[in-house]
Design brief:
Elements (H helix, E strand, L loop, with lengths): L4 H10 L5 H19 L2 E4 L1 H16 L10 E5 L26 H8 L3 E6 L33 H8 L5 E5 L6 H7 L2 E4 L20 E5 L2 H11 L29 E5 L9 H16 L3 E5 L7 H16 L18 H12 L2 H13 L5 H22 L5 E5 L15 H5 L6 H6 L3 E8 L5 E8 L4 H14 L13
Parallel strand pairs: 2-3, 2-4, 7-8, 7-9
Antiparallel strand pairs: 1-3, 4-6, 5-6, 5-10, 9-11, 10-11
Bound molecules: glutamine (GLN).
Length: 486
């Protein structure tokens, strides 16, 4: 049952091969059996999940099923879900129960999904390995001594271990695509503004974007159909006509022009990652695509620019955690200022504090022009690089991550080394473009490699088409980590 994917599961639910309650129970049983080894899911409410499944069965019986009725999914713990604890990987929100739904959560609920639980993540989505979580690290289902990637590491590991059919994620600098790559699943970051940020706990608002994680491009399309859409409560939500993101899945690839940025294929890439990506591009050529070398000359500046802008926005967004209205409050304090200081000292972890300090520094008088304003200008240049590249190609391809999954603890003492994990994903967020990662092979140790495809603004349907055609010709995305195959 856990290997069917969303489209086939929906068909079987409609044909009454099994009920939504049976399906939900099946995944809850898998979670009970497997999650302890992964620490991917941190909040469960079985009674509530089963009640939602019963409602789904009633809708199916009355012929009122929506596109995702009865489909069990997980939400990254950055999304507020009414009545569910929403901790965002932080001690600061350890006991926070959301009183309302994020737009993405309510859209998926309206489509009929059943929430199985909430997934572990890096604290406030800051990290590339899921090791900054207050709830402990998540482990990679392909090798439990390795990280699953981050910050949506719980979602990626859970989907890889087939503990749910799909999960939500968020991507500020790579946090959907990079964990998808390291965990061997598919993840899509849409164009900035396609999914509403309402109810999604803010990290760096000009970069944050919600997207799906699933086992196939087809399932990503079905998830995105439900997640996308205008929402007046997010001022950067785009008012556009609804799209069917699955509409182009079957389009042949003949004539597709793939741009290969020379900056993506340097010595920095692990040789086995480079080999898998090159093999995938060979497969695309067999499917009728051509390739052209392009250049993103400012890409090397994307990490420094991001680590000015994202902390600047984070320092402002995280000012709200002051112990006054909700969230953690220090037990003992002398006066109001002491209460703020102790609350924030005790409630935030080391990486979050590092970002707040950097952000406060770059926004301070005297440094604002030198850092923040300069970074904004380079951000524009990076977006212009992509615009030029898309004059020559339809889609840009390369590795999602320079390496496969690394060992737990191996990068935690060196923040810059950790930040470099996102070298191929961050520029996409700075430009606001859509990007997708799909499995494209394994290294010698049996760890998955991700292939990244980047599209022009609003090219999600095309990216999904390009990924789906590859998945019709290959079976990397169907592999299940051995320990979780039963
Ligand atoms: N790893 C990057 C960071 O730590 C990106 C995280 C993200 O996309 N949420 O900021």
């Amino acid at each position: 049952m856990f290997q069917l994917g969303i489209a086939e599961t929906a068909r079987q639910l409609a044909a009454r091969a099994f009920s939504a309650v049976e399906l939900t129970q099946h995944f809850l049983d898998r979670i009970r059996r497997h999650n302890a080894r992964l620490n991917a899911i941190i909040t469960l409410d079985e009674a509530r999940s089963l009640a939602a499944a019963r409602t789904a069965d009633e809708h199916i019986a009355r012929g009122k099923a929506g596109s995702l009725t009865g489909i069990p999914i997980l939400h990254k713990d950055i999304f507020c879900a009414n009545g569910w604890r929403t901790a965002c990987g932080s001690r600061m929100l350890e006991n926070f129960v959301a009183p309302y739904d994020a737009h993405v959560v309510s859209r998926l609920e309206a489509a009929g999904t059943v929430i199985l639980g909430k997934t572990n993540m890096d604290e406030f989505a800051m990290g590339s390995s899921n090791e900054t979580s207050w709830f402990g690290p998540v482990r990679n289902p392909w090798r439990t001594s390795a990280v699953p990637g981050g910050s949506s590491g719980g979602s990626a590991a859970a989907v890889a271990a087939r503990l749910a059919l799909a999960a939500t994620g968020t991507d500020t600098g790579g946090s959907i695509r990079q964990p998808a790559a390291l965990s061997g699943v598919c993840g899509l970051k849409p164009t900035y503004g396609v999914a509403s940020r309402y109810g999604m706990i803010a990290f760096a608002s000009s970069l944050d974007q919600a997207g799906p994680i699933a086992t196939s491009a087809q399932d990503l399309a079905l998830m995105l159909n439900a997640m996308a859409g205008f929402d007046a409560r997010d001022s950067t939500s785009l008012e556009r006509a609804a799209e069917d993101y699955a509409r182009d899945l079957e389009r042949p690839l003949r004539g597709l022009r793939i741009g290969l940025p020379k900056e993506f294929f340097s010595d920095a890439v692990q040789p086995e990652v480079a080999a898998a990506v090159e093999a995938a591009i060979g497969e695309y050529r067999r499917l009728g695509a051509t390739s052209v070398e392009v250049s993103l000359p400012n890409m090397h500046l994307s990490i420094p620019v991001y680590y000015v802008l994202a902390p600047a926005e984070a320092s402002s967004n995280l000012a709200r955690y002051d112990g006054v209205r909700y969230g953690y409050r220090a037990d003992a304090f002398d006066d109001l200022v002491d209460m703020y200081e102790r609350t924030r000292a005790e409630g935030f972890g080391a990486e979050v504090k590092r970002r707040i300090m950097i952000g406060t520094y770059v926004l301070s008088h005297g440094y604002y022009d030198a850092y923040y304003l300069k970074a904004q200008k380079i951000r524009r240049l990076i977006a212009t690089d992509f615009a030029r590249a898309f004059e020559q190609c339809d889609v840009i391809m390369g590795p999602t991550s320079p390496t496969t999954a690394f060992e737990l603890g191996s990068r935690t003492s060196d923040p810059v080394q950790m930040y470099l994990s996102d070298i191929y994903t961050i520029a996409v967020n700075l430009a606001g473009l859509p990007g997708l990662s799909i499995p494209a092979g394994f290294d010698a140790a049996g760890l998955p490699v991700g292939l990244q495809s980047i599209g022009n603004y609003f090219a999600e349907a095309r990216l999904l088409n390009v990924a789906h055609q590859y998945q019709r010709a290959t079976d990397w995305h169907r592999r299940v980590p051995a320990d979780f195959a039963g």
